[in-house]
Design brief:
Strand content: 15-25%
Strand order of the largest sheet: 3-2-1-4-5-6
Order of helices and strands: EHEHEHEHHEHEHEHHHEEEHHH
Largest sheet: 6 strands, parallel
Bound molecules: nicotinamide-adenine-dinucleotide
CATH architecture of the largest domain: 3-Layer(aba) Sandwich
CATH topology of the largest domain: Rossmann fold
Distance between the termini: 28 Å
Length: 383
């Protein structure tokens, strides 16, 4: 069994829990889970989400069944087992500032250190193998050293993601249990030298940063297609407009910048030159809901100076795309700790993340990264 904790019980977290329980009940197939057709040491059915955390006071104290009913409606076939997954109070650190959320946090009326200690004690009882971060995207910086990281976190000057990452390392240190922290959001953790030093030191692992779903992995593979044929890419346009709260949060410039940072790193890495590009989430339009509108446009120079162009228009369900990947990331998190690894694991990050850690690591095409990942697992694509 793999015991998992969810930080954030929004769309992605809830879709993940609902999808997992529906798979366990045999209500739905395993599509959208990249490694579902390979024999891994852990089955999808082995995953057990033991608790979720949130800071939205309308969710804290409820269960993921309630969160599911809120999103999918009461008519939807929601497994009763979701009632066993509580939504506990997390650390806020202003991550919801400026959003239409009445927030509450464990740090209210006490120090950040005391709040982290309480969380670590809870985790010592919940015994997670994997902790998944899918909270609202927040601004955050990289630290040069673990000392710089710890002082920013304990002084309350770091984002909630960093407080959670630190809590994961303290849980590993104090309980002696191995844990993987999956950072599926852009706030840097795997690309954060100060935090990775802490993960290494405590024998814990961080995967990250920012789950690669939707248009960004497709753009990376298209760029590789151009690079392999030596076509000179003149520019890349890729934007999304969505109607979920993630898109609403990304209308705030500081949060949007974090996303742009994780999305744009691939152009120069894959092409070998930095073709002019506009790659970022651009807007919020409520009626689109979770099914975002994606537009892509590339232009390139071909043989004898001819110019070609490509246009893509798509509507993509945003949250299920990441939720399916998280099913594998949870299993890989457990596999990585079983292998005795610590720090971060590039082979996993390169396929699943928009900005694969460690800091300075290459952002390669996902088609290549997939082969590398299979190789790391001792599997082969065309066997
Ligand atoms: N395809 C995708 O949907 C995709 C891909 C890559 C990354 N992401 C990232 O995943 C994250 C979640 O996306 P979503 O669509 O579920 O957003 P969402 O707004 O529906 O959910 C975020 C949840 O986190 C909670 N939260 C905020 N601050 C918190 C804190 N400090 N502690 C605990 N909970 C907190 C919010 O109350 C909310 O319930 C976002 O950061 C997004 O950028 C999503």
């Amino acid at each position: 069994m793999i015991r998992a904790i969810l930080l954030g019980s929004g769309y992605v977290g809830t879709y993940l829990a609902v999808g997992l329980e529906r798979i366990k009940k045999g209500l739905v197939g395993k599509y959208g889970i990249p490694l579902a057709k390979y024999p891994l040491p852990y089955k999808i059915e082995d995953i057990n989400i033991v608790s979720a955390y949130d800071i939205d006071s309308s969710k804290v104290g409820k269960t993921l069944f309630d969160a599911g009913a809120e999103i999918f409606g009461k008519e939807y076939d929601l497994p009763e087992t979701l009632k066993d997954i509580p939504i506990k109070k997390g650390i806020h650190l202003k991550s919801a500032e400026g959003l239409p959320i009445k927030a509450t946090g464990l740090e209210e009326g006490r120090s950040v250190k005391d709040a982290i200690d309480e969380l670590v004690n809870e985790w010592a009882e919940l015994k997670p193998d994997v902790i998944i971060n899918v909270i609202t995207t927040e601004e955050g910086r990289a630290y040069k050293s673990k000392e710089e990281a710890v002082s920013a976190i304990l002084d309350g000057k770091a984002p909630a993601t960093h407080a959670y990452a630190y809590a994961a390392t303290q849980y590993a240190k104090q309980s002696g249990r191995k844990v993987t922290f999956v950072n599926a959001i852009p706030t840097p953790v795997a690309n954060n030298p100060g935090l990775i030093e802490l993960f290494n030191e405590t024998g814990a692992i961080a995967f990250g940063d920012d789950g690669a779903t939707g248009a960004t992995p497709l753009t990376s593979d298209l760029l590789e297609h151009m690079a392999q044929r030596n076509r000179f890419v003149e520019f890349v346009v890729q934007f999304n407009i969505g109607g979920n709260t993630d898109f609403l949060a990304l209308t705030q410039p500081k949060r949007n910048k974090m996303k742009e940072n994780t999305k744009s790193s691939m152009v120069a890495d894959i092409l070998g030159y930095d073709a002019p590009h506009y790659i970022k989430p651009t807007g919020y339009l409520q009626p689109l809901g979770d099914k975002k509108y994606v537009a892509m446009h590339l232009e390139w120079i071909s043989f004898n100076g001819f110019r070609d162009s490509l246009f893509i228009s798509a509507r993509i369900n945003d949250s299920p795309a990441l939720a399916g990947m998280l099913v594998d990331l949870i299993r890989l998190g457990k596999i990585a700790v079983d292998k005795g690894l610590s720090g971060t694991v590039y082979e996993v990050n390169a396929f699943f993340m928009k900005k694969p850690g460690p800091e300075g690591a290459k952002n390669i095409a996902k088609t290549h990264a997939y082969m590398q990942l299979l190789n790391w697992l001792g599997l082969s694509r065309y066997q």
